[in-house]
Design a protein that fits this description.
mainly alpha, transmembrane, transport, 73% helix
């Protein structure tokens, strides 16, 4: 392996990192904006629930690369799409990738948030009602903060999966991290240098995401950590238990 090749073309990989982070971050933001109202609608039995379930089923049941191909190559086959005001965007690979990634992330995030909302303890909601809060206030001040805290571990995994799934962008001419690696290998007729460099960059970004989410989880989920007993006669769950010696 010639390690000087990636160093010589560090600017190409830096641009690839920026493109990957840009697509991943924007897709996650748009996906979250889709997922939050969708999850609430599913939990509350909205009239839109069948449509939302169909959307989630389709985008969770098909590979991301197929979705990207259908949007990038498929939409241009329809004349009414080419004549619409959206065609200047839909003919660009970057916008097609962003749309596909956002819809895919939104489908997975919908299920993550739906599960977190559905498993919110009823006592928390009843406590809000006992304080005289209205239903919108309970949703905003009690339900969503509680559900989002408990969804953190699963959503952290979704961010990592979305980062790894973003490699699909390279197959529709976008120069992301993997695209930079493929360009390097093709330019110098080498087999490993570009791909190994891309793998190391993805690993570094993944480890950074995992570290950040560990810190966030440690802060927002610390109330779920069970502290060991510090006083004699107090069990590990905080419930009093008689000391056998004291009982005698």
């Amino acid at each position: 392996m010639d390690l000087s090749l990636p160093l010589k073309h560090w600017d190409m990989f830096a641009a690839g990192v920026w493109m990957t982070l840009q697509l991943t971050f924007l897709a996650l933001v748009v996906g979250f904006c889709i997922a939050l109202p969708s999850a609430l609608a599913l939990c509350r039995g909205s009239r839109w629930s069948p449509l939302i379930r169909s959307y989630v089923y389709v985008f969770r049941g098909t590979p991301l690369i197929v979705q990207t191909y259908l949007i990038y190559y498929g939409l241009g086959q329809f004349e009414w799409v080419r004549e619409s005001v959206l065609w200047p965007l839909l003919r660009e690979a970057w916008w097609c990738a962003l749309i596909a990634f956002s819809l895919n992330s939104g489908a997975y995030a919908t299920e993550i948030l739906r599960g977190a909302i559905a498993t919110t303890p009823k006592g928390e909601l009843e406590g809000g009602r006992a304080l005289g809060l209205s239903e919108p206030q309970i949703t905003r001040l009690v339900l969503l903060p509680s559900a989002l805290r408990r969804a953190l571990p699963q959503y952290g995994n979704e961010i990592v999966f979305m980062l790894h799934g973003s490699v699909v962008a390279s197959v529709i001419t976008i120069q992301d991290i993997l695209g930079a690696g493929r360009t390097l290998n093709g330019r110098y007729y080498v087999a490993y240098e570009g791909f190994v460099t891309a793998a190391l960059l993805y690993m570094a970004i993944t480890f950074a995401i995992v570290f950040v989410f560990r810190q966030i989880e440690r802060h927002y989920l610390r109330h779920l950590n069970i502290q060991p007993a510090t006083r004699k006669g107090i069990g590990p769950t905080g419930v009093g238990a008689l000391d056998p010696a004291a009982a005698r």
